[in-house]
Design goal:
Radius of gyration: 20 Å
Structural class: alpha/beta
Order of helices and strands: EHEHEHEHEHHEHHEHEHHEEH
Number of strands: 10
Oligomer: single chain
Strand order of the largest sheet: 1-2-3-4-5-6-7-8
Number of helices: 12
Helix content: 40-55%
Length: about 280
């Protein structure tokens, strides 16, 4: 099982204080942002700051990821050229809309740097299966939903249940699972609505996402809680594992447990839950 990716925290790369806070933040990944969070006049400064932060290190077990500017922008090529020599776990590519976007990035980035792809365009949704299939061979490791940009392009309104984008959220999970990729839900915009954040994080967990992206350290607690098994889930998983391990159930593909039929697929899910709980 891959390490958990419950929380990925976006931070503007040109703010040294933000990077310093990230080194102690309770998140699984830190994303130093060179794109949306950085004004055009600060792009070069942000790139240099991201390189300095990566070189300095100190992020512990957190994956260090840098979101580059798009390949068609005035800064994308310089970002990728600099990041090719950076000690980062992954580079997040914005507005990936076709496998060719990943191919172009891989031509610059060495193989040990994973590719993460922002899914935030209608074109991406139409070609997502190919992006995942061909991207896997190029070192694509994760999909991150850009629900704000996607909703803008769709011209839809996001209600509390995100009804308009539920089909595409489900499609992203299906494609990611089919090709062994991690998949993270988009950000929650309202910083003063913890209840709304917790609801949306629980919704994302129910849809099958591995985790959710955040734009402020204060959002990490509710998101981690939504994607971390609670005591009841752990107890259920332990019971299933123990039942299959009992001598009388050796070699069986289905057993009776607590009044229900339990199959090997339930055992695999129970093992996943316990592995995730072990990272708490």
């Amino acid at each position: 099982m891959m390490p958990p990716l419950r929380t990925a925290l976006y931070l503007p790369a040109n703010r040294a204080s933000a990077a310093a806070k990230a080194r102690a933040a309770p998140c699984d990944a830190v994303i130093l942002d060179l794109e949306d969070a950085v004004a055009p006049e600060a792009k070069d400064e942000a790139r240099a700051a991201a390189m300095a932060a990566a070189t300095e290190g100190g992020f512990g077990s957190r994956l260090l990821v840098v979101r580059a500017n798009g390949g068609g922008s005035a800064w994308g090529a310089a970002d990728l050229a600099a990041l090719a020599d950076a000690p980062v776990a992954a580079v997040l590519l914005p507005k990936v809309s076709a496998p060719a976007d990943l191919t172009a990035a891989r031509a610059v980035l060495p193989a040990h740097i994973a590719l993460w792809a922002m899914v935030e365009t209608c074109a991406a949704m139409l070609d997502l299966a190919a992006i995942c299939r061909e991207g896997r061979a190029l070192g694509l490791a994760a999909l991150l939903m850009g629900t704000n940009d996607l909703a803008l392009e769709m011209r839809c309104t996001l209600d509390a249940e995100r009804s308009a984008v539920l089909p595409v959220l489900t499609q992203a999970v299906v494609c990611a699972r089919a090709h062994g990729l991690a998949v993270l839900d988009g950000v929650f915009n309202r910083l003063d609505d913890e209840a709304g954040l917790a609801h949306e994080a629980r919704q994302a967990a129910a849809l099958g996402f591995d985790g959710k992206t955040a734009i402020h350290p204060a959002q990490l607690g509710p998101i981690n809680a939504a994607f971390t098994p609670d005591a009841a889930a752990i107890a259920r998983a332990q019971g299933i594992v123990a039942a299959f391990a009992a001598p009388e159930n050796a070699g069986k593909g289905a057993i009776r447990h607590e009044g229900a039929m339990v199959e090997l697929l339930h055992l695999r899910e129970a093992e996943r839950v316990l592995a995730l709980a072990a990272h708490q």
